[in-house]
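Preliminary data (for renewal application), calcium ion complex.
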Amino acid sequence: MSIIRILAIEDEKQIRKLLRIGLEAEGFEFSDAANAAEGLDAIVKQKPDIVLLDLNLPDSYGLSILKQVREFSDVPVIVLSVKDKEADKIELLEAGADDYVTKPFGMGELLARIRAVLRRQPASSALPPFHSGDLEMDFALREVKVRGEKIHLTPTEYNLLGLLARHAGKVVTTQQIMREIWGPGLSGETGYLRVYVTTLRKKIETRPDEPELIINEPGVGYRLVNPAGS
Ligand code: CA
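Predicted structure:
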């Protein structure tokens, strides 16, 4: 297995330092962010394998960050918090946290939780291949075929198509696409998105000017046609 990348979003310097020492010693690649904004940006850009999320950050409360993350990413999230009320725990798990560690925690406990989350990963992260019309997308192989022929997509085109395919049949909003593909910093630059949709259509649509796969929902976003429903 390749190196596991762990991102900690934690405002306490001392804890970040302890995490770095403890996790790097175990062979993980570690990066950190000191607030929610940096953390969200790092999730988009670094695509970590696991996120450790402190619940109380200077610029946001953990639960709302978690909800934001879940709008665009399935990355496993382990929450770190001093709170230990059962209701909070349930709320967090329902909001999409994979596990929960109460501060102060020992490195041994955290490592056990990380390994448990990683063990659960392969089954949930292996998406089945996607088919729609002439388009086939194999997530495990990172391969896209049109009428049986393998086509070349740039990483951005692939990520964009993958995002639409994961939500096939549903509209993905422009804002959500911008955040996942380019990160929060560029979320206003929607011209990029139009350019990439155009190049993607040229590669996958039979008639790029009359698209039958990537449908624009004006003023909202884009929808990839799902053969099963839409
Ligand atoms: Ca904190």
